[in-house]
Design a protein that fits this description.
It is built from seven helices and seven strands. It is α+β, with helices and mostly antiparallel strands. Strands 1, 2, 3, 4, 5, 6 and 7 form a seven-stranded mixed sheet that branches. A hairpin with a 3-residue loop joins strand 5 and strand 6. The longest helix has 13 residues.
Length: 191
């Protein structure tokens, strides 16, 4: 069939897992945009974005469920982070975003997820140099050439983290009333 859209295998599997375990979820970010706008996942988007309420499902529960289904937790993502990210051959990365409800004096109740990111370019450089052995980002050849100093930059990064100088919080927030109006829809046979 010419017009048949091939749906990512990990997308199909994660939806099946969430339904099996009766986990309340919604699709977010680029995943939702592609499905609503184009009736398909965006070609250049490398991940599946799943959102859940942090008060309804714990990260360790999702971690256990995903591991049971042969998904592998990606390095750098763990239970102390507000999101989990998994790899599995055959499809895209699967990201779980754990949203919380917060009161915002200007907008009222907001659904929000915040995660730590390096505060500035200097901290980004220290982060890259602390991971120079496996770094694959911009300027990777230059960063990789510093791998013999990797331990020093890890110590420096940890020191700056302890002094609360390394990270700032960034993320997403939406008015809760928009998230509470979740509706199911058909996407190539999936609800």
């Amino acid at each position: 069939m010419k017009n048949k859209i091939e749906v990512d295998q990990n997308f199909l599997e994660v939806i099946s897992i969430l339904e099996k375990y009766k986990i309340n979820y919604w699709l977010g970010h680029g995943t939702l945009l592609g499905i609503i706008r184009d009736n398909k996942l965006i070609e250049w988007d490398h991940d599946i974005d799943v959102a859940v309420w942090a008060k309804e499902v714990r990260q360790d529960e999702i971690l256990e469920i995903m591991k049971k289904n042969n998904f592998i937790l990606r390095e750098g993502f763990g239970v102390e982070s507000p999101d989990l990210s998994f790899n599995k051959n055959g499809g895209r990365i699967v990201d779980f975003n754990f949203y919380e409800i917060v009161d915002n004096s200007e907008y009222g109740k907001m659904a929000q997820i915040l995660w730590p990111v390096p505060k500035n370019y200097f901290m980004k450089l220290i982060h890259a140099l602390s991971e120079s052995e496996k770094y694959r980002g911009k300027f990777k050849q230059i960063i990789n050439s510093f791998s013999k100093f990797n331990s020093f930059f890890k110590i420096l990064k940890n020191y700056l983290i302890k002094k609360d100088l390394f990270y700032k919080l960034e993320g997403y927030s939406e008015p809760v009333q928009f998230i509470k109006k979740i509706k199911k829809f058909d996407f190539h046979g999936l609800n």
